[in-house]
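Hello,

Following up on my earlier ticket. Below are the three sequence lines again, exactly as submitted.
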Amino acid sequence: MTPADLFREFTAGFPARKFSAGLLMAFIDLYTEIGVPGAGFGSYQDVIARFPRQVKTNGGKRANTLIVAKADGGTLSLRPFYNAAERFFRAEHKRFDYPSCAPHATQAWADYMQWLDALATFSADELAELRQKVADYVLAALKSQAFDPASVKVEPPLFRMLLESFDMTAKKGEPTGAAFQGIVFGFLRADNPHLQIEIDKVRTGSKRLQRVGDIDCWEGARLAISAEVKQFEIKSDDVPDLEAFGNDTGRRGTLGLVVALGFCDGVEELIEDIGLKPISTDDLLRIVELWDPLKQRTAVASLVYYARHVEKNSSLAERIESFLTMASEPSAAP
DNA sequence: GACCGAGTCTCGGGCAACAC
DNA sequence: GTGTTGCCCGAGACTCGGTC
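Thanks for your patience. The regenerated structure is below:
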């Protein structure tokens, strides 16, 4: 069998046994390592006569793979050479269609006795050329699955950008507190798709509407979450005003949130003492950073809905939409 | 003792051969 | 033509020994 014959046989069998490529390369590397090329061997049996096959592993168990004894007393296994070939195709050249089956492949070595016979007669140059042809053949036959970062369209984290950069202070024609209330509504809407979210315009008077907080989240007839939204930094003097809210949510077994731009020193502990959970914009940011773009889009859509259809304030709605347009431009995303 | 590599074994799934 | 069976590839769990 000439190198050309062997290569033809390899290509014919490759579709059914892809691992045969790595096995063939491993045979060549093993023979090269122990100095078979140019040593005048006529067959695999001649090689084994010089480098006896080990039929037991170092642990005394039956060896299924090809292990030979080296002249210096040590042993050499086919497996590391096969591993290297598999790494070459899969890790280095991203041919993930090449099978990950080193144990199975190296156990099948005995199916290729003809190849081992032929390889024993080839020169070093012939072996190197054949090895290169096998590698090239596989690289051409199997498609590269290398990851191209440029091929991935990254959607900007719009809601996070809103939290970080949108000016929440009221502009001309906007009611104070509306921007922040809309953002908290968007946050709760996206974070609680299983709940019905109720919200009204700022300064509507939640008591008058039989509501508990500025934003109420219902699971059927049960109030699951209620939030008081404060577009300012809460001081200790403001805490007594939250007592009734804390009492109401506590009585109902509702998770009561106090969402504010920030809290003065020690105020968060005072709020927790009355059974409420203080959440600052920094807390919101930490949570939103873990959201995927789809969830962020839901929050943004809810904010736009709030500005357009709840608050019905065109000034705020246009300011939000203008911000989103700018933020969506490729150069704007972080 | 933890970690890693080498080796064995088992199992699921695809596919071809075969029986009806 | 369809259902069954068996083979074999491919994947991965598991064990064991060597090394640091």
